[in-house]
Amino acid sequence: MTGLDTRQLKVEIVRPALQALGLWSRAAENLVTGTALVESRAAYLRQVGGGPALGLWQMEPATHDDCWKNWLCAPARSRQATALRQMIGSLNPSAELMISNLLYAAGVARIRYQRVATPLPDATDAAGLSQYHKDFYNTPQGAADPLANVAFFSEAIAA
Length: 159
Description:
There is one protein chain. The protein is mostly helical. Helices cover 55% and strands 0% of the residues. The protein contains 8 helices and no strands. The longest helix is centred in the first third of the chain and has 16 residues, at 6-21. It is globular and about 40 Å long.
């Protein structure tokens, strides 16, 4: 199964979403793009096998909701909350929107990473980005293989 063109995903979806949030950097762009490649091959909008994860970034609704309830609610992050709300117009923030609104889904994925105190790896460090994904987006019990996934982050960097 092939998904979206990686360059177009990176430039047309991830970059504008991160810029709107005020959270763009080359490292963040490569991390979020690579995350979509790892999580769904940038192809699947619902978790294969019927799990709860949604969108190209395969975020679970509980994680989405927690980002809003316990992170975006803070006055210091009102700019990011406003930017995400602008991405969805008059709709209320909902995990289901990560299926149909790629800008929003990319933005929420970046917010998930923003919650981590550990600095992002270098923008061209595919192995570091892959390990960061494993450590902070996936879980220790999750299926992500940081060694095998280096190829996806290399693809994101090259795009």
